[in-house]
Amino acid sequence: RKEVEQDPGPFNVPEGATVAFNCTYSNSASQSFFWYRQDCRKEPKLLMSVYSSGNEDGRFTAQLNRASQYISLLIRDSKLSDSATYLCVGQRGGGYQKVTFGIGTKLQVIP
Amino acid sequence: DTGVSQNPRHKITKRGQNVTFRCDPISEHNRLYWYRQTLGQGPEFLTYFQNEAQLEKSRLLSDRFSAERPKGSFSTLEIQRTEQGDSAMYLCASSLDVQGDQPQHFGDGTRLSIL
Question: Most exposed among A80, A84, B19, B25, judged by the fewest C-beta atoms under 10 Å?
Fold first, then answer.
């Protein structure tokens, strides 16, 4: 079983729709979680950190459920520019901070 | 631009040749990571430096791969006797070594194509 699992999609949604992605992790040693966005043939860019209390950044809401070991990302009012691959990342704490990426979920927002 | 810088952006070479990539992290970041990414996959961890010390290496990093960070600033990743399976995007990331878990910031990557 992969340490971080995501549905690769693609998720095809109309402009203005709300879309949610989930990601599960298997290693309880993972302490910090992030969502990265990656455009085609570009580097991953940090989208947002994920906190247990849930956090929001404009149209984006991230949530962490440690009991069930999953992370979610909600995008409201989807824009064409949201089309990208969204990577779920688990990071262990301590001196090394090992990072494990999911395979990424591809989102295509359609006009 | 004070982000992570990688060069070259693209490298095309024949099988069997040696290649070297360079990464310049964000200046105050003392943690540096190398990843490899192939199409349809997330980045896979290769190795990690804290300052000049290489603290972790993945099993993916065969003996043909070597990485250095001699002065704790820029890093190089060398692949010897390249094989077609080495074709991938090689990503470098850096982060701060402070209390609390810090996200990593990525460079543009070096795309390697082996003919």
Answer: A80
Most A CBs within 10 Å: which of B104, B105, B110, as the mutation test of the A interface?
B104
Residue type for position B41: Q
Q: Residue B101: is its pLDDT beyond 70? A: no
In tens, the pLDDT along A41-89 reads: 899 999 999 988 889 999 999 999 988 999 999 999 999 999 999 999 9
Q: Say how many CB pairs under 8 Å bridge A and B.
A: 53
User: What's the pLDDT band for A17 if we cut at 50, 70, 90?
Assistant: very high
Question: Between vectors from CA B88 to CA B94 and to CA B27, what angle results, nearest 5°?
Answer: 15
Contact, B105 vs B99, CB < 8 A? no
Closest CA of chain A from B114, distance in Å: 17
Interface of B with A in 50-89 (CB under 8 A): 50, 55-56, 89
Residue reference for tokens 């909600």: A74
pLDDT for position A93: 67
Q: Scanning the structure block, which residue is given the tokens 């070096």?
A: B110
Are the C-beta atoms of A25 and A11 separated by less than 8 Å? no
CA distance B25 to B93: 7
Residues 41-100, chain A: which have Cβ within 8 Å of B?
Answer: 41-46, 49, 87, 91, 93, 95-100
> Which of A29-38, A79-88, B37-46 has the highest average model confidence (pLDDT)?
A79-88
Which pLDDT score, from 0 to 100, does residue A8 have?
Answer: 92
